[in-house]
Design a protein that fits this description.
Layout: E1 11-22, E2 25-36, E3 40-44, H1 51-58, E4 66-71, E5 74-75, H2 80-86, E6 88-90, H3 103-115, H4 119-124, H5 127-147, H6 162-174, E7 180-184, H7 192-207, E8 211-215, H8 219-225, E9 228-233, E10 236-241, H9 243-248, H10 250-257, H11 261-281, H12 285-293
The structure holds adenosine-5'-triphosphate (ATP).
Domain ABC transporter: 13-259
GO molecular function, one term: L-isoleucine transmembrane transporter activity
Protein name: Amino acid/amide ABC transporter ATP-binding protein 1 (HAAT family)
Amino acid sequence: MMSAQHRAAETVLAANGVTMIFGGLTALNNVSLELGEGRILGLIGPNGAGKTTLFNCLTGLYTPTKGSVRLRGAQLPSDPAKVTSAGIARTFQNIRLFPNMTVLENVLVGRHIQMKQGPIASVLHGPWFRRDERAAREKSRDFLNFVGLRDIENEVARNLPYGDQRRLEIARALATEPTVLLLDEPTAGMNPQETEAARQLIFRIRETGISTVVIEHDTKFIFSLCDSVSVLVQGEVLVEGSPETVRDDPRVIEAYLGKPREEVEADVEGARTTIIPRYDDDQTTVMEQYREDQP
Ligand SMILES: Nc1ncnc2c1ncn2[C@@H]1O[C@H](COP(=O)(O)OP(=O)(O)OP(=O)(O)O)[C@@H](O)[C@H]1O
């Protein structure tokens, strides 16, 4: 029997020919991508490639100059709050928690978005709202349990270690009960243990059926995490496919190293055959050879 990962997945999120122009700068040019149900899609690319801009288009923060974004076939509203209610949640490159609120209160904020009623409503309204509020707390605790922060629900968010703050951001996003979760550099600044814990957490999120898009600079992390990977370079999708296909593609190596693979290999080979042996053989020969090479 085929595992869930290998069966064709229904597309939940699709960007079609998305172009984003700021003044004279084309940040995204005709970008298309598809995210399958319960899949993890990685988005990599050099600085300034347009990854965050694409996230902003996928969350209604930006309206693309051209092209469309569809969630389960329906055009995305161009209002971030409506996009969240429609089922897309995100975390940010720079953590955006409410630093002076407790861990539990931060998750409750996500829960209220899901409930489509603000916290003030529970004060102004009758007992059924207070009952909803109790249910919201219980549900928020479930999400804290899921990410492993249940024991510190009363800590103030700003006092949490960095890795825990990132986890809390994820818990808050999960509390909106999204169809799609967008994670912008979830392991930035993490130590290897925290990074591994984040990888395991994202796998567990996939097991719940949520579809995830992850932006990361750490390509090793992306290749070991994702079901498919898209490489953005200068606002365009350069390569997309399975982690293996993308990792071995010479264009990807070139985009990261700035040179064609053959040239990189020739450089390495050249260094081995000419420079290194001379150092090994005789300390003076490099300079002598240099002098001999001069016309
Ligand atoms: N609001 C904006 N107004 C003008 N230009 C913008 C805006 N947002 C992004 N850009 C430009 O669009 C291009 C893509 O930027 P973006 O932040 O999306 O890249 P990135 O791949 O996320 O980079 P990084 O890895 O450094 O975060 C850059 O040239 C950037 O300066």
